[in-house]
Amino acid sequence: MNYEIFIAKRIVAAKKYKSSISSPIIKIAIIAIALGIIIMMIAIATGIGLQQKIREKLSGFNGHIQITNFDNNNSEITLVPVSKNQDFYPEFKTVSNIKNVQVFATKAGIIRTETDFEGIILKGVANDYDWTFFQEYLVEGKLPNYSSEVSNDVLISKEIADRMALKLGDEFNILFVKNDPSKAPWIRVVKIVGIYNSGFQEFDGSFVIGDIRHIQKMNRWNDDQVGGFEVLITDFNEIIPKSNEVYMQTGSTLNSESVVEKYPSIFEWISLFDNNIYLIIVIMILVAGINMITALLVLILERTQMIGILKALGSSNVSIRKVFLYNAAYLILKGLFWGNLIGLSILFIQKYFGVITLNPETYYVSEAPIYLNFGYIILLNIGTLILCLLMLIIPTIIISKISPVKSIKFE
Questions:
Q1: Model pLDDT for residues 44-78, shown as the tens digit of each residue
Q2: Within this chain, do residues 87 and 202 fall inside the same structural domain, yes or no?
Q3: Which positions ≥6 away from 248 have C-beta within 8 Å?
Q4: Do 219 and 86 have their domain in common?
Q5: CA-closest candidate to residue 343, choices 48, 50, 47, 39
Q6: Which of 134, 231, 356, 370 is the most exposed place for a label (fewest CB within 10 A)?
Q7: Which of the residues in the chain have pLDDT under 50?
Q8: Does residue 228 contact residue 83 with C-beta atoms inside 8 Å?
Q9: In this protein, which residues make up the domain named ABC3 transporter permease C-terminal (predicted)?
């Protein structure tokens, strides 16, 4: 066995080591390492988790990329139809990693009940719609099916249902104003077959999902005319290059816009989370490193006699420094063990029980989302261990200054 490791193990196992003057300082250093890794894990898991959830919800309501007519319409309502007879529909063959292309149309309406009314946006979709997003946030009922004849089934949010005192299975009227205000509005009687709750109040408070054929009929569009296309991609990290590719592959009368371009302020805000994560990691590693440096210095000064004896027996400064670095590595690994155990427990509790809640008006989610990936956890542990050990190389220089003659004392 390597004798430096052997001596380091004997130091750790010694009873005197556990009751020495340095013992409380060592415990504080271990706690600092554990707290550091806990805070870093929580910062990364919640920061990335919040970014992903917000991106997921924005994409769920709008698709990753929207293709519409090239006009100056900046509202959520589609006014000028687009023909379905496009080279990229129903399959985008000229651009890779496209998950789905689906048609949509939107129209402003008013929900009217016997006691109240509420302005909404009816989003019409067809049988090519990918329901994965709404399946995750469905709280009651089922998803509508628009594959056969025109359907009056709609999917509404829990927020609208609560405000309008509606429940699963209820029928209600939606009024749509005609282009000529002097004429009576269109009235559609729809039935609630499903209720969703995404926690994104900006959309939950306004969107009702229904059959696109109702909008086509009210707008006097043909069956092959829609409000636009939503393009879903397989990897959100490629959204900018994919958006550019889609734009180049569409006709001159069409415009494509990614969800990042449509909601720039939200994406700029969530991009700031990365800076927060980096800052927390740097601060925590510095705090942990400084505590370990203090503990190691106390440990070295406490064992000057042992260092003198080892030097007298022929040990080099490098070998003795290795002894204390191995000792420090043991303390760091102990702190990392407890930190990972406690940190992962906290993250799993939050992931599956949602103990910590957030204000959805501010954060667009009702509870703190957790992103768990053992890849970043392993890298975080390895990085913390290596950086702390590199920081500890400097204080071990003091070992070379210790004289065997002055340090060895005989009783």
A1: 999 999 999 999 999 999 999 999 988 776 778 88
A2: yes
A3: none
A4: yes
A5: 39
A6: 356
A7: 410-411
A8: no
A9: 279-404
